[in-house]
Amino acid sequence: MIKTRLLTGTVLGTAMLATLAAPAHAQDASAKAPATTSTAAPNAPAGADDAAAAASSKEIVITGTLFRSSADNIASPVTVLTADDIARRGIQTVQGAIQTLASNNGPALTNSFTANGAFAGGASAVSLRGLSTNSTLVLFDGLRAAYYPLADDGSRNFVDLNTIPDEIVERVDVLKDGASSTYGADAVAGVVNIITKKQINGVSGMAEGGIAQRGYGGNQRVSLTAGFGDLASQGFNVYISGHFINQNAIYNRDLPAPFNSDNQSNICYQGSCGIDNRQNSPLNFSGISSIVPVFVVRPGNATTHVAIPGSRYQFLNPATGCGSYQPYNLTAAEFANFTNAPPTVCTQDVVHDGGIVEPHTQRWGASARASVNIGESAHAYLEFNFEQSISAYSGYGLPGPGIPTNSLIRANGPTGVIYPRFSTAGLAGGANAPGSAPLALPVYICPRLTVGDCNATNGTLNPQNPFAAQGEEALLLGTLPDLKQYTSQRSRVYRLAGGINGSFGDSWDYSVNALGMINDLRRSYDGYVYIQHLLDVVKDGSYNFVNPMANSKAVLHYLAPHLDNDDNSQMYELDANLTHELFQLPGGAVQVAVGGSVRRESVNSPSGNPDYNGPTQRYFVLNAFGAIGHRWVESPYFEIKAPVLTSLNLDLSGRYDNYSSGQHAFSPKAGVVFTPVRQLTFRGAISKGFRIPSFGESSALPTTGYVPISLTTLPAAFLASHSNPGVTCTADKPANCSAYLIGATTGQESTANPDLKPEKSRNISAGVDIKPMRGLKFSIDYYNIRKTGAITAPPFSAALNAYYNGQPIPAGYTITPAAADIINPAALPLVSVVSASYVNANTIKTDGFDFAATATVHFANGWSIQSSADAEYIRKLETVFADGHVERYDGTLGNFNLTAGSGTPKWKGSWQNTLNFGQRASITGTAYYTSGYDLSAQDQGTGYKDCGLTTGIQACHVKRFIDVDLTGQINVGKAFTFYANILNLFDAKPSLDTVTYGGYLYNPVVSEAGIIGRAFRVGGRFKF
Predict the structure, then answer these.
(1) Which segments within 729-775 are labelled E, that is strand?
(2) 970 and 921 in contact (C-beta within 8 Å)?
(3) For 152-282, where are the E strands, in sequence order?
């Protein structure tokens, strides 16, 4: 176990009372609308009130600093999303709003990915600057939050955005700069600070409902909030709030072509069309697929479990045949070429039958807060939040390498696609099943019902074995049509925070805050086969393979017992600091703040599917990864602000973090703000930061992934030992079938390393604000981030090449062979899993620009127009490896190991325009833009932007995606507001992407709105 502690630089002092709800642009009286971009934003610290905030528009508390300060005196750029702004955009949740941020790019984690094989299913995460989910720190009211119990890709810890209490959120501050000097670990790319309301009066609520134009994706939302008391006049405030959100599932079969079928023959580009990828497709038959919808059997030797020479697979029940699936009779050439295939096979469209676009999600939560003034100089608060989030789906998930349709079993059978005679796996698919351990046991039906050897002569003939009378076993290949997999994640978050802040003596301010947060997660599974139970029912004949639909519920429950896996993470923190004015400079008083924090964080996520008791004592295809650990961190910190001149402010801060697991780091930061004239402000900052090794990297069970690593050519001698399997696919595949994408079917297992050191970062930012006239503002910022000692798995290619060429395996690597080829059992097997430990090895560099503009124009009749734009351009994102070679990812689908193939588009932005008809009504249109990218990824063995991943049925460059949302609202009296949203107004279709595997033929991070299509939502709000 590891131990650690961390701190969250909280905002302190009585300044918090005076700045609670002031918007970031409060210094500009003309900016009445909630702008989406600003150079400053309030930190909304624990303990302050809305009424007091209105009293001071010049001094506000800023995310990333410990002092109250004017908005023009902040050295780092900050983007602000207010609750008003989110509502005007027609966005249902704060999580959804954060995903639209221009600075949220690359390896973000969306809710839709839950149903498509995500390690951290049921969660959503932000990724600033195209780095990773673990390089962005998420805070709640300036305090840290508990990690989601599951790690992204089994290694990256992050905070789930679905735990945000939407109804009490005042705004979201996004600090787009390194902030480890204030907040400690993980604030490498920036900080997202969720700011809740500190005072609510009266009763308010809302109700809304929506649906996509095509009739799917129905959604509903209701909330109710009530509060009383006034901090300014009565000295206290208490409020409670609750909400409920439901989103129905969306399936691929609901969508228009080509997103609703595995048949890609209608997707054409420059005369080249796609193939029919349906299982056992008549248009593209290439042997029995690794996934088939019914059972076929082949006679085998009951002693050796080797197929009878010259035999072929046949239907287990010819009368039933394909059942509800489409039969396909092989041509004479196909029947002759694929020597293991039966004369008739079954065609299944996995995408249409079971593909999932959006899981069913449901959230509800409740919050309560009590605030009280203590005398004239102190303020205390206590806040409780509960949030439950459920994500569930029933079906197959995303078709692709390693993703089964339903419960697949195989008796060392043919792989079908490239090597129809070449076994790559044992029972349960082995290397084709994410996270499943390779098994050498074949699934075979013995001639007699016996618990002994398969060649026993006693016992009743097995009715499931058509070769029983001859004393032969039946080698089994197929899926269980009477079982469908159901997966759900239920997250429950409990958060209790409290504190006191105030002042004493001559300009001394203090703040003490405490936090406890628990994230309980239950993962539930049905329809997943337990391997030993499968062996049992095969042996005793209790499972009816001849007519699976006739099996009883008792048999099915035994074969696939229900599984609940409970995980949790916890965060406990105590933070205190003290601020004081030291002496005067020409620009004002020098301020100093000192403080300290102690924190305990833990993750208890045991594997729900380990093989401690042997490979048969586990479920098939459930990933076995898990992590357990805890750590403490103690952190002293300081900050000094020196207004050298009225036009020149300097800021210096630093923090030392000491982890109980042995790591430590000092993070300094220096910033400067220069305002030579009122219309022009220059700012800049340089800092160092760090990311602590995650629990997944330092104390996890092995994590197995199936992302392709490189195109490896199998040696001729290896092919020859397997009867040259390449020649069997010349009928419908390229002649050179010896070129085999090893990584596509080989598990790459990354093992924990408790000796890892923190990743170190260096951040540089510089920007300028231009305000040529009242109501108009432009800004541009440059950022440059370098991470050294980046944690990564070492490259696997060298170990694979050594194995296949009969050379010694390099030190630090472990090779696990797959099951033997049943035709050539003495030949060297394929690799099932190659494993190695994480190391601190790489350097990651990225730089780019942020652009922002806000404008407000007032008209004589009380009407006004407000406009705001926010955009980010990634100039370069690259990794420098330990051996010196460089991989560049910006503008491509890379880095696959970070982005799940969602890529790193160079441009992302939004433009919001609101027309206000006085206080009566408003119309808001918001356009979202993400640039296109090339089908290349250097970490996949291709060059930078060389189109190395192009599939031939689309252009190398994936088109940009633009979608526009329209929202209108009307106020009826002072109490009621009614609104309507049209999402994806022009019904923009997602850009075709045949490579990204987070969504079928589209990129879910870039164009999720496009796959849903035009949608409508109506609702109303009231406040008394």
Answers:
(1) 739-740, 747-751, 759-773
(2) yes
(3) 169-175, 190-196, 202-212, 219-228, 236-247, 250-251, 268-269, 272-273
Q: Is-contact 73 649, C-beta < 8 A?
A: yes
How many CB atoms are located within 10 Å of the residue 921 CB? 16
Q: C-alpha angle with apex 362: 359 to 368, nearest 5 degrees? A: 150
pTM flag (> 0.70): yes
**Strand order across the 78-82 sheet:** 37-38, 78-82, 169-175, 190-196, 136-140, 143-144
Enter the tokens of residue 367. 């919050």
457, 526 contact by CB (below 8 A): no
Query: What phi and psi values does residue 724 have, to the nearest 5 degrees?
Result: 50, 65
Cβ contacts of 717 within 8 Å, gap of 6 or more: none
Contact call for residues 761 and 688 (beta carbons, < 8 A): yes
Strand, helix or coil for residue 350? helix
Radius of gyration of the chain (CA): 30
- The whole-angstrom separation of Cα 239 and Cα 511 is 23
Q: What are the Cα distances from residue 1024, in Å, to 196, 203, 424? A: 20, 5, 67
End-to-end CA distance of the chain: 53
Q: What is the pLDDT of residues 58-94, one digit of tens each?
A: 455 568 888 877 656 789 998 888 899 899 899 989 9
Specify whether the CB–CB gap between 895 and 886 falls below 8 A.
no
Give the number of other Cβ atoms within 10 Å of residue 45's Cβ: 29
d(CA 193, CA 151): 21
Q: Before 895, cis peptide (omega within 30)?
A: yes
Check: CB of residue 194 under 8 Å from CB of residue 46: no
Find the length of the chain.
Answer: 1024
- The Cα-based distances of 398 to 260, 403, 608 in angstroms read 12, 7, 22
Q: What is the token pair recorded at 324? A: 């509800």
Concatenated DSSP letters of 654-669: EEEEEETTS-EEEEEE
DSSP H or E run through 852: strand 839-858
Spatial distance between the Cα atoms of 554 and 573, rounded to a whole number of angstroms: 48
Torsion of CA 990, 992, 995, 1000, to 10 degrees: 60
> For residue 751, with 0-12 CB atoms within 10 Å meaning exposed, 13-18 middle and 19 or more buried, which class applies?
middle
| Element containing residue 604 per DSSP (H, E) | strand 588-605
pLDDT in tens, 583-642: 999 999 999 999 999 999 999 998 888 877 776 788 877 777 788 899 999 999 999 999
Q: Which two tokens stand for residue 265?
A: 């023959």
CA atoms within 13 A on the CB side of 117: 26
Beta bridge partners of 1020: 207, 978
Q: How far from 607 is each of 118, 201, 548, 703, 813, CA to CA, in Å?
A: 15, 46, 31, 11, 23
How many helices and strands, by DSSP H and E, does the chain display? 15, 50
- Strand partners of residue 368: 240, 384
Residue 175's closest CA among 38, 367, 284, 308? 38
Q: What three-state secondary structure class fits 468? A: helix
Beta strands in 66-189 (DSSP E): 68-69, 78-82, 136-140, 143-144, 169-175
Q: Give the tens place of pLDDT for each residue, 811-822.
A: 889 888 876 665
Neighbours of 491 (CB within 10 A): 25
Ramachandran area for residue 420 (φ above 0: left; ψ -120 to 50: alpha; else beta): alpha
DSSP for residue 324: T
Q: How much is the pLDDT for 822?
A: 55
pLDDT of residue 702: 59
Running DSSP on this structure, what letter comes out for residue 910? E
Is 660 exposed, middle or buried, given 0-12, 13-18 or 19+ CB atoms closer than 10 A?
A: middle
Q: What is the pLDDT of residues 833-855, one digit of tens each?
A: 788 888 999 999 999 999 999 99
Rounded Cα–Cα distance for residues 879 and 904 (Å): 13
